[in-house]
Amino acid sequence: MSTPYDVQHVWQLMSGADAAGAMFAYLQDGINRDVGCGLLTASVYDLVNMRSRRVFSENLEAYPLGNFKRLDRNRYFETVLVGHKHFSSTTIEEIAEVFFDWQKIQDLGFESNMNIPAIAGNTVIGSINLLEKKGHYDADRVRRALLWQPIVTLSFLLLNQAGEDATFSPGIAATEQPTLEGGKAS
Q: Residue 11, exposed/middle/buried by CB under 10 A (0-12, 13-18, 19+)?
């Protein structure tokens, strides 16, 4: 199976200025072209405090950068953060089983999701989080999206080099007083 990305171009992006932002933009374009995505965000994880922090958002009003989102020990947590596998669903009911903000997701017009973890050194260092209309992330789209997983991981490794508070959006800083969406983790 061939890769959907150009290895030579990836090498050029890795070697250039703002490598993390450039690599992530390339990933975003590829996901939109090959899979489709109505809204993309990206998160890093703080498992000690059971929360994630948003480092990219296509909708800053609904999902601002820097905000923390509580993590719950549920099927998503076990699948992505413990099992190091992607998570996807095709209905709002499936989303509601694992995400406390499912109503916000539905209000934005989405009922299907996919989360692709960035895995390095046997640790999930981040994930891209995709939302789309009901039924969108079927088996074929999931397969095509997972072809991009090495670029997901490479993007987060490059972001980690930029520092603890870095985001994939140059010039857009995380909020100064991040909040915890969803309250205390359970």
A: exposed
